[in-house]
Amino acid sequence: MAFESILYFLHKMAPLVPLQEQEIKLLRTPNRVLTAELTVSGRKYPAYRVQFNNARGPYKGGIRYHPDVDEDEVKSLGFWMTIKTAVLDVPFGGAKGGIAVDPKMLSPTELEELSRAYVQAFYHYLGPYQDIPAPDVYTTPQIMAWMLDEYEKITKTKAPAMITGKPLEQGGSKVRDIATALGGFYVLLEATQKRHLPAKTVAIQGLGNAGMNMAKLLHGQGFVIQALSDSQGGVYGKNGLDPRQAEESKKTGSVVGYGEQSSAAPKSDCRVITNEELLELPVDILVPAALSGVITKENAGNIKAKIVLELANGPTTPEADEILYQRNILVIPDILANAGGVTVSYFEWLQNLRQESWSEEEVRKQLRQKMITAFDRLWQEYAENNKENKFDLRTVAYIHALKRILEAERKHGRL
Ligand code: GLU
After folding, report:
1. Closest-CA residue to 236 (of 248, 245, 227)
2. Is the pTM of this model over 0.90?
3. N or C end of the chain: which has fewer CB within 10 A?
């Protein structure tokens, strides 16, 4: 989403926090914007690292590989990381990185070269107490492993805590691979209980790491996954889809092929749909888990779900947000719903610094606790404010986060 939308949102928040002009200026200005041009096989790829704010701790945030990546987008994502770490109260600031590339067009060797080139360009600014990258859209544990290896080679150190989302063999944390989905899952269960909603049916847009794992978790819990999609399109099955079967279809192309090879659902039970159609299906829960800006003022009026769980970063535009709120649709905002990833990244960083290795059970327990604590705190205020129809959950989360960040800024003496 354009950084302009964030500025619009910040100004809207100003009377509610409340924010002075000087505070808005500080909150809207990234501390450092790093850019580079990386060359692999004679082709050039623009690369970015935006270190947005570090008032609450070292910069933290993933690196995205996607053809649409540009400075404006990375800046927006860096801002959201700053808010997200504050909402969850993990001791980090916010940053984001990206390379404008379609990784599917690269050979494995080129992918490795590109990932190492990223570290060569920015290593001065990275480190366990400086800035700690992680995976994001189309980046994997293997890419984190190459980046760590490159960093350790250049700096002649052992520094596993400089990056998270690593493979287990390199000091990665158990559960990190499914953490984004699992965090959202815990929050969703809590929300359906709090709202006494008999939610059962689900549509998920996007089958990357977050979307696919969410589909599996919800399916395992007895929810009916009625629709799934990837970048090629989607599939709808009223009686439910099997996520494992969808994963198989994706391996050979797209989830769109689900009906053809499925033994789990007879062909007649499924139909192919578009990504746009998926958003407007009559389901209880809608999970946008792909890219930003998909719920807009054009389609927000047609959304039929009772709950929108934002697993993607920024899937709802500010105009759409207002429409959903007026229509009494509960939006569990990205800065809470998808914060499980960075929360387990925090646990991974802690384990590395303490030379510990936590059990799967321990990580799950700590993640659940962190997510539920953050949710319950926000929910309490939301429920109180909501009697007067004042704030949505996103606004409550922002008020909390912005106050925490500004308090830290004041203690630093920067305000
Ligand atoms: N890329 C993820 C996010 O947007 C995870 C970031 C991290 O683990 O630092 O939250």
Report:
1. 227
2. yes
3. C
